[in-house]
Specification:
CATH architecture: Roll
Shape: globular
CATH superfamily: Ribonuclease A-like domain
Order of helices and strands: HHHEHEEEEE
Structural class: alpha+beta
CATH topology: P-30 Protein
Radius of gyration: 18 Å
Length: 144
């Protein structure tokens, strides 16, 4: 009986850990901040809070937070404007028809997470996303 309980708890822990990785890789978790948090040292705080880093734990050179509702961002998948994705040569990106308010965080110091320090650049730009049949959206970049 005790062995069954231990196995159940291990499976429950493993399942939650797997789901946590999925949640942390969504567009909403990585790139959406709506309404915008009012934080001192915005980029440093947001990147630390959301654990945003490269797979090898190095600091990201640039990261973007979009200050709009997720459903509005997802509607970019209906945009008639498509362009070649910068890093995905065979895939088309959908470009928004309107400019979105966003904060661009540029790395200025550090190489290994969490010792990363960023410069804050509020901006407005068209966003580029890839979309799939399930309605999922992945942020690919922006165009001023």
């Amino acid at each position: 009986m005790i062995l069954m309980v231990v196995i159940f708890l291990l499976l429950l822990f493993w399942e939650n850990e797997s789901n946590e990785d999925i949640v942390k890789s969504t567009l909403e978790h990585l790139h959406v901040d709506y309404p915008k948090e009012d934080l001192r040292r915005y980029c440093n705080a947001m990147i630390f809070q959301r654990i945003i880093r490269e797979p090898d734990n190095s600091c990201k050179k640039e990261h973007v937070f979009i200050h709009e509702r997720p459903r509005i961002i997802n509607s970019v998948c209906n945009s008639p404007k498509t362009v070649a994705c910068q890093n995905l040569s065979t895939i088309l990106c959908f470009q928004s028809e309107i400019k979105f308010k966003m904060t661009v965080c540029q790395l200025i110091e550090g190489t290994r997470y969490p010792a990363c320090r960023y410069h804050i650049s509020p901006t407005e730009a068209f966003i580029l996303v890839t979309c799939n049949n399930m309605g999922s959206v992945n942020f690919q970049g922006y165009v001023r």
